Amino acid sequence: MINAGDTAWVLISAAMVMFMTPGLALFYGGMVRRKNLLSTIMMSFACIGLVTVLWMTYGYSIGFAPGIAGGLVGNLEYLGLKGVGQEPLAVYAATVPHLAFMTFQGMFAVIALATGIFASAAINPTGADGLVNGGGMQVVIQMISVVAVAAFAFIGSIVIGKVVNATVGLRVKPVEETIGLDLSQHAESVYGGSMR
Predict the structure, then answer these.
(1) 106-164: per-residue pLDDT in tens?
(2) Please, are residues 83 and 77 in contact by the beta-carbon 8 Å criterion?
(3) 135 with 144: CB under 8 angstroms?
(4) Which of 43, 63, 44 is nearest to 55 (CA)?
(5) Fewer CB within 10 Å, N side or C side of the chain?
(6) Distance between CA 185 and CA 178 in Å, rounded?
(7) 4 in the same domain as 101
(8) pTM listed for this prediction
(9) 147 and 196 inside one domain
(10) What is the mean pLDDT of the chain?
(11) CB-based contacts of 55, cutoff 8 Å, min separation 6
């Protein structure tokens, strides 16, 4: 049964985490030149958009669907949010709509390891204790998950790099690199220098 108070709290919490994005953008914006501030802010918002799409496409399913490999990785039951709707999911949040739970977890996709450290069965009787409460195995499981994701991202980046290098190349010519990409690629002569 859905509890309005629980649902409101989960959605407000998700919104508060979402508000961290402009703060992070301003933080990074303070480290670049004035002319690059807008670009830095836009990159931060683009990242939150990209992570949201990836989370809804397959991330939530891998993280929270019924597991394979001994429960280490979720299956693809929720791929593309199939079956994720307004009905609560008794396994994780029996009083909150499944969609709200997915949104809340998506906001915290980046800090999954911290969950393993501070998890408590006293708060969620169906869950496991984290490292602080004597359940070190939960941290080990999440560390293995983090390593698996890092390996997947690394291998995927290498494959993408090889494809880009084979099609358009990863580097410009040495002369263009020496002169500078502003001049050689964009003909921005405001910084001085000339093409040779």
Answers:
(1) 887 755 544 555 555 655 566 666 655 566 676 677 678 778 888 888 899 999 999 99
(2) yes
(3) no
(4) 63
(5) N
(6) 12
(7) yes
(8) 0.55
(9) yes
(10) 78
(11) 102, 106, 109
